[in-house]
Amino acid sequence: MRILLLEDDGQLGPWIANGLREEGHVVDHFENGKDALMAAMGQEFDLLILDRMVPDLDGLAVLKSLRASRDTTPALFLSALGEVDSRIEGFDAGGDDYLTKPFAFAELSARVSALGRRRDAGDTRHANDTTLRHGDLSLDLLARRCQRGGQTIDLMAKEFKLLEYFMRRPGRLVTRTMLLEQVWDMSFDPTTSVVETHISRLRAKIDKPFETAMLRTRRGEGYVFGA
Amino acid sequence: MFLVPSITARLGWLRRSSSLRLSLLLSAIFAVGFAVAIYVALTLGQRAIERRVDTTLGALAQAAIVDDRREDSAAMILRRRDDLAGLPAPFARAVARGGGTIYLDDDLMRSERWRVSVAQDARGTPVMVAVPLDDSERAQELLSETLWTTAAIVIAGTLAIGLGAGLLAQRRLARINDTLGRLAMGDLTARTSTSRTRDDLDDIAAQLDLTAAELERLVTQTRHLSASIAHDLRTPLARLRAQLEGVPEGAERDAALDEAARLSDIFDTIMRVARIEAQHGREGFKAVPLDALASDLGETFGPVVEDGGKTLDLNIGSCATIQGDQGMLVQALANLIQNAIVHGGQRITLFAHGRTIGVSDNGAGVDPSQFAEIIKPMVRLDTARTTQGSGLGLALVKAVADRHGARLILARQDPQGLSVALEFAQL
Q: CB of B238 within 8 A of CB of A12?
């Protein structure tokens, strides 16, 4: 992917840029908003990673200008402003995702690939399906029924939502924060092990009684379904 | 559909309009004053005319010599007192009374109203003199019509001015009211921007605008300040995290990453409390049914509590739907559940009844004398600080309660334990 990175911090900028390059992306790194906006206006990018507080023109203003000129490139905000109202500002400006500093590189990487696939229409592939299938596992969204290998599995509402989220993103790294935000609508960390607990319950139902595991943990990074 | 409520609302406003009330009162006073003045003027005027007529009639009679000859004409009837034949009966009655004004059923020489006077002629013979009064009556009627018309115009004018002033004031008052409402909803850019007539209402509006501008400035300043603090603290935390990720994997790296994460969590909570406390009005509020909120939390945290070796009971009765920030409420209740898992007893209950939602447990509880202490930021009763946590949990719950105008109720459970609840005010 060709990524535009706007980050003025002398240490974080190169860290992010190099990390993404190591993953095979092409990164154009800018340290002020004006240059980033000029570049984004003149060239095609697959993804914009914008820090909110940078010199000249902040990331929010950069994205607003781009969206005003009908640029629909996916954008991810990186910000030290993590409170709900700041996040809402980010989404209102046309941002597709919002990541609060400090963050683990794996978290950024997972979100970058999620946004990249959205660009490739990956997410619309299953958007209208009423039944999601993966191997011998199927999830009927209308009847709210889950089956594996012909056996019906009884899922709680939250477990159902969790599995649906995973099944819509097969083979992709999903982080704990992504799950909290998307499945529980929590933009804060409830310090209790909400995600871990529900994942383990879900596993006990969809994986344990069967030979192969669908849901895998990637230590320190997150979870991958059906890889 | 839309017009009717707006008209009703306008009428409601008008009923309460002080200038319209004042003009109604003034109109009533004017009406009474006019009625008295007109009555007095007409009555006195008539009497004055009658006296004048009587004097004239007396003088005429004295200047004449009345004999058997009748000298009736359309302008005057002059006869001897005992020679009233041919005249309608009211004349005789008036003569018997010694004079007066009479009204005839049928015209006599084209006049219905006559003034009758008894006098003596030049030779001392008692005579009756009568003149028609229709001309003076017409003059009276004209006078009365003029007076009543003037009165009606003045009263209508007063009412119109009152209504106009009421409507004008209503427009400005409605604007002031609307501005106050928008400020309360959190729109700090709301201004009345009325300054044309520079009267008392405009002074109020101008003061309101000044206050709103000051409020907006302060809030913006606070936001900038907290944004700068967040930036200045989270950036080094992010650098630390980046550096730690570069360190070769191992137990020490993991421990350092954990510490960095805890540091960042504590800071997040401080920022969140500050942000919640800085917010105002009903910004971000939506309808939140408390029973649905409680059962949703029960489903999310039930398994967590169970995995912690405790039980979470749900006690949900019939609940109200309150106006609130769902995300904040979830955060506050998640904090209470977390507190109960760490510090509370084996049985944790999430309860919701009416306008109250909260968490209780059957643990050691907290002494009521320390209730005020534990909601202060950074205070932990566990002074040895052996358990985890920043001591910010209840401060956040308190901030969320304050933000919603809800009461934070701490109570001791029977026989032991602590119960913490938010009680939302009746709207």
A: yes
| Strand runs labelled E in A94-192 | 97-100, 131-134, 137-140, 145-148, 151-153, 173-174
Q: Which of A12, A83, A100 sits opposite B242 (nearest CB)?
A: A12
The predicted-structure confidence for A136-195, as pLDDT tens digits, reads as follows 999 998 889 999 988 999 999 899 999 999 998 888 889 988 999 889 988 777 777 899
- Average pLDDT taken over every residue of chain B: 83
Contact across the interface for B303 and A103, Cβ inside 8 Å: no
Question: Residue A86: its chain B contacts at CB < 8 A?
Answer: 227
* Dist CA B401 CA B340 (whole Å): 18
Residues of chain B with CATH 3.30.565.10: 286-423
What's the per-residue H, E or C state across B368-404? HHHHHHHCCCCCCCCCCCCCCCCCCHHHHHHHHHHHC
A195: left (phi over 0), alpha (psi -120 to 50) or beta: alpha
Contact (CB<8Å) A184/B300: yes
**CB contact (8 A) between residue A197 and residue B338:** no
> Could you confirm whether domain B200-278 is CATH 2.40.10?
no
Strand order in the sheet with B126-132: B77-80, B126-132, B111-120, B99-108
Domains, chain A, with CATH or none: 2-119 (3.40.50.2300), 131-225 (1.10.10.10)
Name the residue among A6, A14, A11 with its Cα closest to residue A33.
Answer: A6
| Partner B contacted by A10 (CB < 8 A) | no
> Which of A11, A53, A156 shows the shortest C-beta gap to B242?
A11
pLDDT at res. B1: 44
Q: Residue B320 has what DSSP assignment?
A: -
Provide CATH code, domain B286-423. 3.30.565.10
Q: Which of B275, B301, B331 sits opposite A85 (nearest CB)?
A: B275
Is there a contact between B306 and A201 (Cβ–Cβ < 8 Å)?
Answer: no
**Rounded to an integer, what distance in angstroms lies between the CA atom of residue A188 and that of residue B324?**
18
Continuous segment of H or E residues that includes residue B128 = strand B126-132
CB A190 to CB B338 under 8 A? Answer: yes
Please determine, for residue B330, whether its predicted confidence score (pLDDT) is greater than 80.
Answer: yes
Q: Which residues contact B353 (CB under 8 A, 6 or more apart)?
A: B315, B316, B317, B318, B319
Burial class (CB in 10 A: 0-12, 13-18, 19+), B196: exposed
Highest mean pLDDT: which of A222-226, B278-282, B383-387?
A: A222-226
Tell me, what's the ipTM?
0.79
Nearest by CB to B271, which of A11, A83, A184? Answer: A83
| Segment 67-96 of chain A within 8 Å of chain B by CB | 80-86
List, in sequence order, every beta strand (DSSP E) within A124-194. Answer: 131-134, 137-140, 145-148, 151-153, 173-174
Reading the block at residue A91, the tokens are 């989404």
Name the nearest CA neighbour of B310 among B357, B264, B344, B353: B344
What is the chain B residue with the closest CA to A190? Answer: B334
Where exactly does CATH 1.10.287 map onto chain B? 200-278
